[in-house]
Every structure is written in structure tokens, then in C-alpha cells.
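Dear Dr. K.,

Following up on our conversation at the group meeting, I've run the structure prediction for Enoyl-[acyl-carrier-protein] reductase [NADH], chloroplastic from Phaseolus coccineus. I'm pasting the input sequence below exactly as I used it, so you can double-check it against your construct before we proceed with anything downstream. Let me know if the numbering doesn't match what you have in your notebook.
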Amino acid sequence: MLFCDVLDRFCISYTFLSRSRCSAIITHLYEMATTTVSNFPTAMSRPNISSSQRFANVNPANFGGRFKVDSCHKLASVCHVASTQPFLTMTAAAVKYEKIRTNAMSVFSSENEVPGLPIDLKGKRAFIAGVADDNGYGWAIAKSLAAAGAEILLGTWVPALNIFESSLRRGKFDESRKLKDGSLMEIAKVYPLDAVYDNPEDVPEDVKANKRYAGASNWTVQEVAECVKKDFGNIDILVHSLANGPEVSKPLTETSRKGYLAALSASSYSYISLLKHFLPIMNRDGSAISLTYIASERIIPGYGGGMSSAKAALESDTRVLAFEAGRKKRVRVNTISAGPLGSRAAKAIGFIDMMIDYSFSNAPLQKELHAEEVGNTAAFLSSYLASGITGSVIYVDNGLNAMGVGVDSPIFKELDIPKEHH
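The predicted C-alpha cells came back this morning:
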């Protein structure tokens, strides 16, 4: 049996073998290669072959050798292996040998690889929509992206812009801007944004005349995207951290049509609008991320006004947008289902503290959920480490989404339910 045939069979089975078994097989294959190509000075040598011939680097584990191929075919395994007949082509002409080493196949350049699989976003630029203070998930995501090396641009709701920028200038956020290395998160620019409006023509006269919008300009989604393009050219990461339901405290049966549609407009369609206008200025292999909540698929009494519907729409849209953005520019689109956090925006729901306590009592991980954990997940999804993940809902809620019942219910008082011992 030719060595390439043996290697083909090995690679097909590669993902089903243990690490120790793979190591043993590779050692055996190496010995076979040395014997098979005994006509060569060493098994790590190859003849010089013209550049017009095609080659494939074959290597499940730093295995040496380069083989002439007629075509590459994909195998049902983690690696793609080129197989040829015969193993090596020899000519009657004099052959010069040179040593060669091939590494494990990767879609990423070895020049960019750093030991430890770090999240490295150096050279990337992120636009985070929906940051108006320093205690929400949007801020945490910005910090994690900055810690990984990304340049940060923010989109802040127009009525909150002056207070937010003033707080930044006065150093009010300096403590929360601190990164792990002691430096402060740098914000390249803050843009006024109201993602409820796609373009200036959509803005009603009463909003234009509202004093909270006085002095602000270019704050619709289309205008902000144009300004970012003018100021910076392109972005790599788009984050949607926006949600608003004017009737969130009302049960669904008491929610007005206007209130219901307003919740969908601000909380889910705004994601579509952002991608529509920012996708043209996003670099290939970019990442778009939004934030959702378990109310999209479970009943959360008190989370009303159409907000549960808006989150369900957001998750459905994530899958469709993943297809469209992926096919157009190979941009990945995902959403993070985050657990309850006592942010300023969440306080508007009215029972957020209760939900935090409930999560602590019933989630598999009995610990406080930190905004940083959501931020770090967003950084991961924005990095090359998540290059194969798109159209997904990623849960960051200490596992609460996996629970079918609340174990703190009195009905379970007789059960021996494990609890963390402090």
C-alpha cells in the first residue's frame, strides 16, 4: 500500500482517535515513510520540482514532506489531505535535494500566531451602539474589545450624549475604564445615535423640535455609518447593545399596538438597520453581535410590552442575517443571551434585583454574573478563535437557560439539592 493511501486512511479516522493513539500512529507512519522513500537521502527531503506543479502540505502533527498533487480532495475530517498516485514523481534528470519542514495545516498565517490562543484584536476597529453609561453590557463589551487591542467607537443615544461625554471628560468613568494592565480604555470617538430612525426622512417633526435633540446632527443610522466611513474608513466589529420597550411593565394583553411595535423597532429592527448600513464598510471576516435575553423562549412574567417578542425576533433575525452577511462579506452574526444585570437600563424593568436573586438561587453556577463575562464572550466571538461560529445564540447566564424548574421552590424542599458551600 502506498504511503499516501495509508495517510489518507489515517486522516479520515483522525478525529475519532485519542491523542495517545494518534501519536503512536503518526510515529508508525513516519517510520513507514522513511522506509518507503529510502531512495532519498532522508525522509525529510524532496526534489526541486517546477513551480507549475501543484503541491499540498500534508501534516496532522508536524510531519515532514511535500507531495506533488493533481488535485486536492476534501476528507470528512478536521484536515484536508491531498492524495496522489504515485507517492512521488521522479524524473531521469539530475535531482537536487533540500530539506523541508511542514507544519500542521491552518487557515491562519503562522506569523500572526501567538502561544496560548490569545484573543488578539489588534488592528481591528469596533463600533458599539447603545453605550450611555459605564455599568451596562455595552460598556463591558467595549472594555473587553479594547483590552484585546481593538479601537473603540461608540454610538450613544442622543438625549444621553451630553451627560455621557461630560462624564468622560471629567474623569467620572476613569475607574471603570481601567483595563487589566492598568491602562485606561481609549475611546476614539463617540457618535450621537438614535437607531429608531434609519435616515433623516424618517425623523418626525416633533422629534426634530425636541430640545433633547437640539444641537445634535447626523444621528440617524445611515448618517452615523456615513460619518464613521468618512472618519475611519472601515470597521471590523459591530455591536448592537440596544433595547427599549415603552410599555415593558405592561402584560402582553394590555400592550398597545404602538407600544408593541415600538419595542420591536428599537430592540430588534434596529439590528437589521445597523447591519444594512454598516455592512458596506465592514471588512471581510468581520463580526456582528447583539444582546438577547431568555424571555425570548421562556415565560418571564413582568417582562412585557412586547419585549419578549422583540428578543425572539432578534434571535430569528440573527440566523437570517448570518446567512446574508456571511454570503455577502463573510461577516459572522451572533447574539449573546446574557443573564440579568443590575444596569441602569435594566432598572426600568422594575424587578431586575429579583431576577438576579432568582438566577443565583437556581442557576447551575451559584455565583454573581459579571458584565465582564459577557464582554469577554463578545471579544471571543469577534476574534479568529470563533471563525466558524455564526447564526448562534450564545448563553452567558451561569447556565440558567438549562433549568426546567426553579429549585428554590418549596415543592423541592424535601429533595437533597446540592448547594455551593462557602
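Two things stood out to me. The two ends are 62 Å apart (CA to CA). The chain has eleven helices and eleven strands.

Best regards,
J.T.
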